[in-house]
Amino acid sequence: MTVMTAQSGTPLDHVLLQHPGDVPVAVIGAGAMGSGIAQVAAQAGHPVVLVDAQPDAADRAVERLGATLDRLVAKGRLEAAQARDVLGRVRPHTASDMSTVPAVALVVEAVVEHLDVKRAIFRQLESAQPATTVLATNTSSLSIDAMVQEAHTGHDAASYGGTSPALARPGQVLGLHFFNPPPLMRLVEVISGSATDGQVLDAAGELMRRWGKTPVRCTSTPGFIVNRVARPFYGEAQRMVEEGIADPATLDLALRRAGFRMGPFELTDLIGQDVNLAVGESVWRQTGEDPRYAPTDWQRALVREGRLGRKTGRGVFTYAEDGSATDAAPDEQLAQRLVGGPVHQDPVARTLAMLVNEGVDLVHRAEATAEDVDTAMRLGTNYPKGPFEWLEELGAGTVRSVLTELDAHYPGGRYRRSEAL
Ligand SMILES: NC(=O)c1ccc[n+]([C@@H]2O[C@H](COP(=O)([O-])OP(=O)(O)OC[C@H]3O[C@@H](n4cnc5c(N)ncnc54)[C@H](O)[C@@H]3O)[C@@H](O)[C@H]2O)c1
C-alpha cells in the first residue's frame, strides 16, 4: 500500500535520497498540462494525487491516462504490468478547497493562467501542507514573485479580508514550466523567484532529470527563456508580410530552407493565433511595452476575425478536412532571391539576428546561462540551433551589422542591440 504522507522534516533534496514510491506528489488542475505532468510523475514512480475543482474532471483525466497507457502497451513501449502500476499510482481527487489535499512532498499547480486563482491555491496549500512541502507552478507567463507576495486587489481579496497575504515560505516556491505535451516534451524550465532557495532549485532540477526531463534554469523574467527568445521568429515574418515584402507561404519556405522545421505562419496556425498572440501581448506588457515585443496589427486582425489556425479551419492559411493547407503556395524564386539580398528584405538575416540578440540579452541580464538558452530553444521550439550556436556561426560582427542596418531602416528601438553584442 502506498502511504500518501510526506515525511516530516524532509526538504526536497532529502526526497532525492528516498524511493520515489515514498515521495507523494500532488498535481492541481487535471487539464491538458496537469494530466500530462501527473503521467510523467507516476511513470517516474511517485504516488500522485490529481486534483481538479470541476466535478469529474480528475476522474476523466485518469480514465484518459488509462487509455493512453493502453496505447503505449499496444505499441510495445510499456509492459502491461508497468501500465497497471502507473495507473494505480494516480488517484483522482475533486476539490476546490486545497486543505483536503493529502500531505505531499511536491505540489505542481497547473490550473487556469490567472494570478489570483493560483495565489489563492498556494495560500491554502501552504497552510495545509507540511512545512517542508515544495510548491511549484506550471505558469507560462506569471511572475513567481507576484505569486508569493502580498496582494491588495483581485478576486480572492474578499476571502482574505481585502488582502492576500505574503506566503510564509517563499524559499520553497518555484516554477516548473513543462511544455505541451508533458510526456513527450523533454524540456522543463526551472524558474526561480527572487526568494527561491538555491537548494530547492538544485533539487527540483535533479528531480526533473529523474523524471526523464532536461531542466534549464531561468529567473522569473517575462516569458522565461523560450517564450521570450522566440518572439522575433513570429514578429519579423509578420512585419515582412505587413510591409508587403513577401507572402506568408514564401517566408515559411525561406525559413524552412534555413533549417527551421516549420515556418512561423504554419507554426502559429498549429499553436493557435490567439494563443500565440496572448503570449506576445503578455511579454510586451510585462516588459513595459518594449517595442522589441510589440505584437503586430496584422496578427491582431487575424484573431479578431476568428482566423485562429487549424482549430478553426482557417488562420493564415485555409485547411482541408485532412489537415492540409489548401492555399499555401510559395513563390520559390522569391524565397531564394530574398535571402542574401538587402537586409530588411531578408527573412533569414532578420530572424537570426533578432533571435541572437534576444538570447545574448537574456544572458547579459543574468537571467539564464548561454548553454541553457541554446538547450531551451532546441528542445522547447525544435530550432535546429540555439542562438549562441548561430552567434558562433555568423560571427558577432555580422549580427551587429544586420541589427545596425535594421535599426537605421526602422528606427524606434525594436532593433536596438544588446549591450553585450
Ligand atoms: N497548454 C499549454 O500549452 C501550456 C504549456 C505550458 C504551461 N501551461 C500552463 O499550464 C496551466 C494549465 O494549462 P492547461 O492548458 O492545462 O489548462 P486547462 O484549461 O486544460 O486545465 C486547467 C484545469 O484546471 C482546473 N481548475 C481551474 N481552477 C481550479 C481551481 N481553483 N482548483 C482546482 N482546479 C482548477 C480546470 O477545471 C481545468 O481542468 C496554465 O497556467 C498554463 O499557462 C500551458
Query: What is the class of the largest domain in the CATH system?
Result: Alpha Beta
Largest sheet: 8 strands, mixed
Distance between the termini: 58 Å
Look at the structure and give the mean pLDDT.
93
Name the helix and strand elements from N-terminus to C-terminus, one letter apiece.
Answer: HEHEHHEEHEHEEHEHHHHHHHHHHH
The count of helical stretches stands at 18
Number of domains: 2
The H-level CATH homologous superfamily of the largest domain, spelled out, is: NAD(P)-binding Rossmann-like Domain
Helix content: 40-55%
Q: Stretches where pLDDT falls below 50 for ≥5 residues?
A: 1-10, 156-161
Write down the CATH topology of the largest domain.
Rossmann fold
Give Rg in angstroms: 23 Å
Decide which structural class fits the backbone.
Answer: alpha/beta
| Secondary structure tally: strands | 8
Strand order of the largest sheet: 3-2-1-4-5-6-7-8
Overall 3D form: globular
Bound ligands: nicotinamide-adenine-dinucleotide
What keyword list fits this structure?
18 helices; 8 strands; Rossmann fold; 45% helix; disordered N terminus; 421 residues; alpha/beta; single chain; 2 domains; oxidoreductase
